[in-house]
Amino acid sequence: MKINKKVASSVLLVGVLLAVATTESSGTEVSYINDLRSNDNTVIASTSDAELIKLGTLTCDSLNADMTGDQVVQTIANTGYYDTDEKIEFLGLVITTAIERLCPEYIEGVK
User: Fold this and answer.
1) Quick check: 12 pLDDT over 60?
2) How far apart are CA 63 and CA 106, in angstroms?
3) Helices (H), strands (E): how many in the chain?
4) Residue 1 confidence (pLDDT)
5) Domain range summary for the chain, segments of one domain joined by +
6) Residue 87 contacts residue 81 (beta carbons within 8 Å)
7) What is the dihedral of CA 79, 9, 26, 58, to 10 degrees?
């Protein structure tokens, strides 16, 4: 599957959000879920904690496998969360929040 323009926009969003991220994160699943739930996004609101954790873990696992930022976005997009603008925002929020809270060691080094 080729990355469409919306997914490419998500990559840009992730890059921007990573640039402003800080390392003050706790690295816990609880803070990851709380941070995601604090966003006004209906996709997040309708997604279970277990699914959000699964997507966050997939983000970190992808980075652990030395994937580039683009490859991480593509991996998460392949889960089906990419077909509407709100879902594109969801992708960016999940990936950025996962990096901030679940695998903060990648904040500075996402390729």
Assistant:
1) no
2) 8
3) 6, 0
4) 44
5) 5-106
6) yes
7) 20
**3-state secondary structure string, 36-59?**
HHCCCCHHHHCCCHHHHHHHHHHH
**Tokens 């999940």 belong to residue:** 94
The answer to whether 33 and 13 have CB atoms below 8 angstroms apart is no
Q: What average pLDDT score do residues 29-54 get?
A: 93
**How high is the pLDDT of residue 80?**
76
Tokens standing for 17?
């959000």
Supply the mean pLDDT for the chain.
79
Sign of dihedral through CA atoms 58, 59, 63, 64? Answer: negative
**Token duo for residue 37:** 């739930």
pLDDT tier at 94 (50, 70, 90 boundaries)? very high
Where does residue 43 rank: exposed (0-12), middle (13-18), buried (19+ CB within 10 A)?
middle
